[in-house]
Specification:
By secondary structure, the chain is mainly alpha-helical. The chain has one domain (5-162). 83% of the residues lie in helices and 0% in strands. It contains 5 helices and no strands. It has helices at residues 5-28, 35-50, 55-93, 98-123, 132-162. The longest helix has 39 residues, at 55-93. The two termini are 37 Å apart.
Length: 163
């Protein structure tokens, strides 16, 4: 591989996981993953692991599983955005502490844009519902991931300065 192609390849490899993450979100935003279609398979799994539940209890459990999925999925996506931004800045600017903060902020903005776009898309699907609450849950997952990233980087910097 030529020296000229290496930065392009590194940039692509930095962003490919985030692009795949967006693809998963887009796929999950279809009718296939509507509440009506996920209820039975998830209920079967739940009852296999935790035992039978009545219909009213299942509605609450199913709702909570789906919202937890939002938080986890968008938290992971935000982590992938963080990785992409951080590697992009590292490739073109060299490693600096400020990149962690900038990468985190940009990752949160990207996550907000994807979450908002996802809800807007679902507004036009008859089998899906759209809610700003879902975007808030998405962002809660993203903030949890960035909180962990912040703690990890603080620990790394503290350990590095004491060595």
């Amino acid at each position: 591989m030529s020296n000229r192609a290496q930065p392009i390849w590194r940039l692509l490899s930095a962003w490919l996981p985030a692009i795949l993450g967006i693809s998963v979100i887009v796929w999950e935003s279809t009718d296939t993953f509507s509440s009506a279609h996920t209820s039975q398979p998830l209920r079967h799994l739940w009852e296999l692991l935790a035992g039978p539940v009545n219909n009213l209890a299942w509605e609450a459990i199913h709702h909570n599983i789906r919202k937890t999925g939002h938080a986890i999925g968008y938290g992971m996506l935000s982590g992938l955005f963080f990785r992409a931004w951080f590697l992009t800045f590292s490739e073109f600017l060299g490693r600096r502490v400020e990149e962690w903060h900038t990468s985190s902020l940009l990752a949160l903005v990207c996550t907000l844009l994807v979450g908002s776009s996802d809800e807007l898309h679902q507004k036009f699907l008859p089998s899906r519902s759209s809610s700003p609450f879902d975007v808030a849950v998405d962002m809660a997952g993203a903030f949890m991931v960035h909180s962990c990233l912040s703690r990890c980087t603080s620990s790394l910097h503290a350990a590095g300065s004491s060595l």
